[in-house]
Design a protein that fits this description.
12 strands; Rossmann fold; about 325 residues
Length: about 325
């Protein structure tokens, strides 16, 4: 049975105060005594009162929520980012509205429109495949911060892992003697993050004397993944560097299907190092994203812009941490 909606007049009657006093008490205004506040709150709790946040926002002319658009909440990296942000937002007495944007411009625009329709005070976009057109549209209504996607816009803030961490992972591969390395990639208009990461990997590997084999968009899975592994094997690559941990796992599974052992025959590295992928039991060699710092930095950036819309955009780079594992080893001997 659906519970009847409880209004302010019901609470005021139960607490023996006026409607306006009940309203001020629930908002925690200083001009209401602590005894009255407690009496009103007890009445509200006993009646099962749920505050109408939209009505409160309209009454105060001030938004009480931050919106976040994730590429996909089921992916470990984005799920952890959302959890970190929600903790910080809650500590500041705000609500967090989460939507999935997906990979297309149209689904992202619908997601952003939903957030803006809720009159959020600011928008955080955590997606390596975010459309800059969508981000710019959102920025015309509210402060916007990109997480995990580099940006040079003068009116959108961003925070992302430092490319030095990507270079460090490539150097780790080189340190094991690998000189023919396959690198997964993505078109810039599909995933700017994966495209940039592949470029950094490749540049550092070449500087270290390695031959780089571009094996394409293995992250798409299916036939593209199988073809990517085939290309790497035909090129005699002794290591495969992937742009994220789910792709690394898929590559490892494909190698196992072909009875190619790792790292004895082919080493594989991932990227993100969050959730189950960071487990020492799995032993994946990956670069851990600084998810906690990314989340806290995103909130700090958006709150700064909310307080001062004329503040200059900031683009901050945060260091990651290499997670050594069992999937990266020395170049196999020819014996």
């Amino acid at each position: 049975m659906t519970r009847r909606s409880v209004g302010l007049i019901d609470i005021a009657t139960a607490a023996g105060v006026s409607r306006s006093t009940a309203s001020r008490a629930l908002r925690g205004e200083d001009r209401v005594s602590s005894d009255t506040v407690e009496k009103v709150r007890r009445a509200a709790e006993s009646l099962g009162y749920v505050r109408d946040l939209r009505a409160s926002d309209l009454a105060s002319n001030q938004a009480s929520a931050i919106g976040i658009m994730l590429r996909a909440s089921e992916r470990s990296f984005y799920g952890e980012i959302a959890a970190r942000i929600q903790t910080v937002v809650g500590q500041q007495g705000l609500d967090l509205i989460i939507v999935n944007g997906g990979d297309s411009r149209d689904t992202q625009m619908r997601a952003i429109s939903s957030l803006l329709g809720h009159k959020v005070a600011g928008v955080i976009i955590a997606s390596g495949r975010a459309s800059m057109e969508v981000a710019q549209y959102a920025a015309s209504f509210a402060p916007v911060v990109l997480v995990g996607l580099s940006c040079s816009s003068s009116d959108i803030d961003s925070t992302v892992i430092d490319p030095d961490s990507e270079r460090a992972l490539a150097r780790a591969v080189l340190s094991y003697g690998h000189r023919t390395v396959a690198v997964t990639s993505a078109a810039a208009d599909v995933s700017r993050t994966l495209y940039d990461r592949a470029e950094v990997f490749s540049s550092e590997l070449r500087d270290g004397g390695a031959t780089v084999v571009d094996i394409g968009e293995a992250h798409q899975g299916g036939a593209q993944l199988a073809q990517a592994v085939t290309t790497a094997i035909k090129a005699h690559a002794t290591a495969i560097m992937t742009g994220d941990d789910p792709t690394m796992l898929s590559v490892l599974e494909e190698l196992q299907r072909r009875r190619i052992s790792w790292p004895d025959q082919v080493s594989v590295t991932g990227f993100d190092g969050v959730g189950v992928f960071a487990s020492p039991l799995l032993g994946f060699t990956t670069m851990r994203q600084p998810v906690e710092d990314l989340g806290q930095t995103a909130i700090r950036l958006v709150m700064t812009r909310i307080a001062d819309s004329s503040a200059a955009a900031r683009h901050l780079y945060l260091p990651g941490r290499l997670l050594p594992g069992r999937t990266l080893g020395p170049v196999p001997s020819l014996d």
